[in-house]
Amino acid sequence: METNTEDKKPTLTPLINRELSWLAFNYRVLQEAKDRTVPLLERIKFMAIFSSNLDEYFKVRVATLKRLIKLKKKTREKLSEDPADTFEQVMQEVKRQQEEFGEVFREGILVDLRQQDIHLLTENELSEAQQQWVQTYFTEHVQPHILPLLLDDTETHFFLKDQTVYLGVHLFEPKKQNLKPERFSMLEIPTKKHGGRFVKLPTEGEQRYVMFLDDVIRFCLPALYPDYGRFEAHAVKVSRDAELDIEEEVSGSLMAKIQKSLKKRETGYPARLLYDPVTPQAMLDAIMAHTGISEDELVEGSKYHNFRDFFGFPDFNLPDLKYSPQPTLVHPLLEKEESLIEAMKKQDYMAHYPYQSFDYVLRLFEEAANDPKVTAMSATLYRVADDSAIAKSLVKAAKSGKLVTVVVELKARFDEESNIFWAGKLQKAGANVILGLPDLKVHTKLGLITRNEDGQLVNYAYLSTGNYNEDTSRIYADHALFTSNKDITQDVEQVFNFFIDRQHDKKFKKLLMAPINMRDRFVELINREIKNATKGKPAKMILKMNALQDERMIKKLYAASQAGVKIELLVRGICCLVPGVEGLSDNIRVRSIVDRYLEHARVYIFHNDGKEEYYVASADWMTRNLSRRVEVAFPLLQKDIIEQVRTIIDLQLTDDTKARDIDNNYVEQVSPTHVRSQYAIYEYLRSLVPEGMDPARKSE
User: Fold this and answer.
1) 33 C-beta neighbours (distance < 10 Å), count
2) What is the C-alpha separation between 28 and 301, in angstroms, rounded?
3) What is the rounded average pLDDT of the residues 222-243?
4) Which CATH fold would you assign to the domain 513-687?
5) Could you say which residues bind ATP here (predicted)?
6) Which residues contact 336 (CB under 8 A, 6 or more apart)?
7) Model confidence at 155, in pLDDT bands (50, 70, 90)?
8) What is the DSSP letter of 689?
9) Residue 409 — φ and ψ, nearest 5°?
10) Is 476 annotated as belonging to a binding site?
11) Burial (0-12, 13-18, 19+ Cβ within 10 Å), 206
12) Was 209 annotated as part of a binding site?
């Protein structure tokens, strides 16, 4: 096992700051909201994604920076970068992006909505008839969920819930002599209780109208504060530290610790208080006095916060304003098989989500749960759907007497509650539930089915780059392997043995497992390319991942570039490697694709003097993946699967529509036709469906 020696020390290795690289990624998301070739309602969703991403960034990364800043000076000096300097750069970039975000919304989204006869009205733009309708709607559907609280002159504490929008209301012109001339009040905008952030007003001919729930409340403030005659209302929202401080030991109840930490998350210290920049200082002073939030946490926003609520923006039944449908494709081979287990005896199969149906893995687990010959089932659950069919199949298998082992990662950030729920269900059903590991987060996506066939135990395995999650499988681009290859299934069995005995002496024939042998093997594969390059042989690597941050791997890639190895990198998110530096990284090109689906697969291709080796993995090249998580990379051994993955990667490398280079620009290529890889991949996989077979899944 690799030992964790991650004391950060000053380095001369050229690196892009991780936090700024992440912000560059989120800016690429904002580009999609700006792009008028993207359907209007989809651009609104990208606004929501940008906002949701930034919320998490503040709750996790900025909160971490603030903790580092509070460290003692001697401890901070051990860090490779001054967290205070990084924090200042982060806040400057966030401010720039927030300003552009507001511009995109005001001058892009709102203008284009009006051109489509959709009007997002404010409280000051209502006709007389709409005023009456809004007042009635408020009285019947909104007011019962609102509890205004007056902030008096004492230091009474008022707790602002995480990720919740509040209105700070300034009250003027009292109607009674005994009332104060002005007061401050706070009220929570009841988004969840109301059923969403938006209120659709009656249409008028072809004209469609919608309002923020915030503005409905603003218009109806006289009903909430009848003793005052004039009001100003400004929105605020707090994002709280979401890092869980957990002693990751198995002794005691880890589940109880997670549950306790989840409760603390809601009351964690604030990472930022987002406020409307026109909010009077007196209002901010009152809020800070009554919440305990300091001026250091104040961050300028806009009139409206929580743009992630735009995921629920009404579509007005206008399909032309959304992406054209891409019906989920059938797998050309698995679709005609009655038994997936029987099919897996014959050959390997690979499914490509979200283009192809996720139903095959659901079928596999359900078939195994019902099969009397199946004696055991094992799975790693990292992020499962709330109503997970796979978890239900595992519960059924356990209840029927099969030996079921499930590794549930309780530290899957923001999915802990769902995982706790299913861990409890599985335990009650009699499954052997392993609640993560001390010091290691279980991130690998594995399944193992053991079957008694004529007295012999035969294994079948499912390995994937993505989670067992029916919901995210529709938007995350992943690869999944169905195999009965003995070497691979025995290796998968070894991984599950590791979860049980915690012994790090495991030997693997085919799989790479972090933290045991993955890093070392990837280094060996890079060194082989370097050796071939120094001998004058062709040397090349194509590496696709979500994030590239590990300094040791980046140094190794720099060394390969200096030796003449051609390196193509497809990195969706964080990339700390600096490409194109003469004499260092001029043989490295880095591209990022942000489009309709979230690129989530990890694929590592090594030229190997013409005998290419392919690995597909759950792991990025981040230190946490290679050193502090259980991850698996599996080889592709079957010719047709290799051809499929290579075709998909080649399409992504030639994308000249949605690919960006490292400084966020669209990639311009001299090409007779534009390539939009996600659409080209869909058409390619559609072409594999034989004539006479319906390529689309009607039920999906």
Assistant:
1) 25
2) 20
3) 87
4) Endonuclease; Chain A (3.30.870)
5) 53, 476, 572, 600
6) 693
7) low
8) S
9) -85, 105
10) yes
11) exposed
12) no
Q: Identity (one letter) of the amino acid at 339?
A: S
The two counts, helices (H) then strands (E), for the chain are 22, 26
Q: How many residues does the chain have?
A: 700
Model pLDDT for residues 450-509, shown as the tens digit of each residue: 999 999 999 999 999 998 888 889 999 999 999 999 999 999 999 999 999 988 899 999
Query: DSSP readout, 59-90?
Result: IIIIHHHHHHHTS-HHHHTTSSS-HHHHHHHH
What backbone phi and psi angles, to 5 degrees, belong to 130? -70, -35
Q: Do domains 339-508 and 513-687 have the same CATH topology?
A: yes
Q: The domain 339-508 is classified under which CATH number: 3.30.870.10, 1.20.1300.10, 3.40.1790.10, 3.30.70.1110?
A: 3.30.870.10
Instruction: Tell me the catalytic residues.
Output: 443
Give the largest CA-CA distance in the chain.
Answer: 93
Give the helix/strand (H/E) hosting 604: strand 602-606
Which amino acid makes up residue 102? G
- Supply the pLDDT for residue 4: 45
d(CA 289, CA 283): 10
pLDDT digit string (tens) for 18-42? 999 999 999 999 999 999 999 999 9
Question: Distances from the Cα of 414 to the Cαs of 64, 383, 600, in angstroms?
Answer: 16, 9, 18
pLDDT at site 249 = 33
**CA-to-CA distance for 350 and 682, rounded, in angstroms?**
15
In 220-339, which residue ranges form alpha helices assigned H by DSSP?
Answer: 221-224, 254-266, 281-291
DSSP 101-161: HHHIIIIIIHHHHHHTTEEEE-TTS--HHHHHHHHHHIIIIIGGG---EEE-SS----PPP
Q: Give the architecture (CATH level 2) of 125-316.
A: 2-Layer Sandwich (3.30)
Note the pLDDT of residue 413.
53
For residue 206, what are its two tokens?
């072809």
Name beta bridge partners: 208.
118
DSSP-derived 3-state class of residue 517: coil
**384 token code pair:** 């499962």
Cα 485 from Cα 492, distance rounded (Å): 11
Q: In what order do the strands lie in the sheet with 183-188?
A: 149-151, 183-188, 165-174, 228-240, 270-275, 298-300
> What CATH code is assigned to 1-116?
1.20.58.310
Q: Is residue 53 annotated as involved in ligand binding?
A: yes
Whether 330 shows a pLDDT value over 50: the answer reads yes
Burial class from Cβ neighbours inside 10 Å (0-12, 13-18, 19+) for residue 624 reads middle
Split at pLDDT 50, 70, 90, the class of 698 is low
**CB neighbours (10 Å) of residue 613?**
15
- The mean per-residue pLDDT over the stretch 257-285 comes to 72
Burial profile 328-346: b = 16 or more Cβ within 10 angstroms, e = fewer: bbbbbbbbebeebbebbee
Contact 444, 630 (CB under 8 A): yes
Among 697, 664, 658, which residue's Cα sits nearest to residue 676? 658
**pLDDT at 262 > cutoff 70:** no
**CA–CA separation, 451 vs 461, rounded Å?**
11
Find out whether 572 is annotated in a ligand binding site.
yes
pLDDT in tens, 511-553: 999 999 999 999 999 999 999 999 999 999 999 999 999 999 9
Q: Please state the domain extents for the chain.
A: 1-116, 125-316, 339-508, 513-687
Q: State the residue for tokens 């034989």.
A: 690
Q: Strand order of the sheet with strand 118-121? A: 118-121, 207-212, 198-204
Residue with tokens 């629920």: 312
